[in-house]
């Protein structure tokens, strides 16, 4: 009698591909020179004033070190998996997942620029995009097939918990977080990403034709 074994990591392939891209990009960053790449391709609000648009995207693939990259991988695995399953693992769903991830990350960076216009401080990391996956995943925690309303307990609870964590990040305690090297954490990117993911998840599912169970719940 043959036995079937569950895979060690039972995650959708788009999430594993996303994690792989983060790890490969960080390995290349370490090989090519971490600080040099951050200096040239990290995002700062001042870039927008000088017409440099590429860093707002490229910064999503740069990290302050392995601890930073691995932390984002862990969050992507935990919160990206339910989001990817809801979108679907077929080409349409996977494409929607990747576009959603990148778009939310870019919007989170732009929100940081809006809060800190002209700032020369550099922001790197996938944290804004990963926070968006967290916001989207909170709408899947209602215990049923429909998306949880924005004012539901799981959504509000997740938002408050993530907000509290980022209040800590906003203080001197945030400098003690692994992988920061003592640098301040761009907590504004985290909160903006969470809000964007929370609000855009339902419309994106609608565009993908995957919001079948969201009737009467509101966006």
Number of domains: 1
Unreliable parts: 214-219
Helix content range: 55-70%
Please give the oligomerization state of what you see. single chain
How much is the average pLDDT?
87
Q: What is the succession of H and E elements?
A: HHHHHHHHH
Distance between the termini: 49 Å
Radius of gyration, in Å, reads 18 Å
Largest sheet entry: none
Shape: globular
Give your account of this protein's structure.
With 219 residues, this protein is mostly helical. The chain has one domain (35-208). The protein is 62% helix and 0% strand. It has helices spanning 13-32, 34-41, 45-49, 55-58, 66-87, 91-115, 127-138, 153-170, 187-208. Helix 1 runs antiparallel to helix 5, helix 5 runs parallel beside helix 7 and helix 6 packs antiparallel against helix 9. The protein is globular. The termini are far apart.
Write the layout of secondary structure elements.
Layout: H1 13-32, H2 34-41, H3 45-49, H4 55-58, H5 66-87, H6 91-115, H7 127-138, H8 153-170, H9 187-208
Helix pairs in contact: 1-5, 5-6, 5-7, 6-7, 6-9, 7-9, 8-9
Protein traits:
disordered C terminus; mainly alpha; 219 residues; 9 helices
Task: Write a brief caption for the model.
The protein has 219 residues and is mainly α. Helices cover 62% and strands 0% of the residues.
